[in-house]
Amino acid sequence: MEFHIQRNTLLTGIRKTLGIVERKTTMPILNNVLLRVRENRITIIATDIEITLIANYEAEVVQEGEITVSAKKLHEMIREIPEGIVHVQRNAGNQLTISCQKAVYRISGMPAEEFPSVTEDEELQLYKIDSKILTELIGKSFFAISTDDSRPNLTGALLEVDSTHDDKSIIRVAATDGHRLAIVESAGIAGDFLKLAKGIIIPRKGLQEIKKLLEENMGDVHLGVEKNMCVIKSREAVLKCSLIDAEFPDYRRVIPQEKGVTVLIEKDRLLHALKRINVIASEGYGGVVVNLKNNLMVFTFNDPDLGDATDEIEVEYSGEEVKVGYSISYFLNAVEVIDEPNVSMEIGIGNKPSLVRGAGNDRYTCILMPLKL
Fold first, then answer.
1. Cα-based distances in Å from 323 to 288, 307, 366
2. What is the DSSP letter of 192?
3. Are residues 140 and 55 in the same domain?
4. What angle do CA 63, 109, 19 make, to 5 degrees?
5. Fewest CB within 10 A of the end CB: N or C in the chain?
6. Which residues pair with 342 in a beta bridge?
């Protein structure tokens, strides 16, 4: 195996694999990436069995072949060598020589035959979608995904596809950890699109890798689902992610049926106030008391072991005085992803959930469970 490739191209390809390769595994081969050189391209493959990335790049191929090497070490080597054309050659004994200008590395690898079998599933039907849509859906729900492995059905986000009366498709993503719920919808997508009999649960790690792939691919990507697998295809790469085989809770039951107390808040003012309180709250107990009264929202934090903090901002509100407690980090997460200049809140009365939205945008809703005061 021997080929020449631009250093930045190779670096981009290897960098994409770092979040996938397993660092702690009983299968050492999963620490490696598979480099496969054929015709006029190099294919870079990484997998942890649940998630697989297949990326293709143009290269000047001298001799075809394949080998697996440590993804982490290969990335460090390519990152440190100077820009230019990189010469890669497989030597006897599964050793790879990497050289650029006067820099030369040699790294031992493992035979490609030991790497898990990976296919691109080219027959799977894929549907075109703007990468911005998927980026927004993931970005505005990811924070609410549970990290508690004892509840596997919550360690991913639910993706649903609904049809509208005018034959458009709406993608909805919901995520919850039991204390908060984020629901995000796309605008209507015209044309033939993915049909799902029921929602699918994409795991947290898979969503992270999908988001990384989308960040590097402006414009359209392609989405497909088959059995227990979700597939995202960009111009250069295919990302395959195993789905969580579990039942997602009926999140619609959590949405309050009774309208709460409504308040309109300037987003930047709210964010800055929460961040100021969080300076001390992040050191321990993270509960903040919110006191809402005539055109004023007052924030209070008190912990005998740490200290206390208060802040207040002007808001649009003229009802009765309301007092409620929230996890300050959850409150921050819900507000940070809002794009609109103003935040609309419906504060539940009597220990009921509160709704956080961007003013004038009903396609994103975060539901926060209050803390007991």
1. 11, 21, 19
2. S
3. no
4. 105
5. C
6. 266
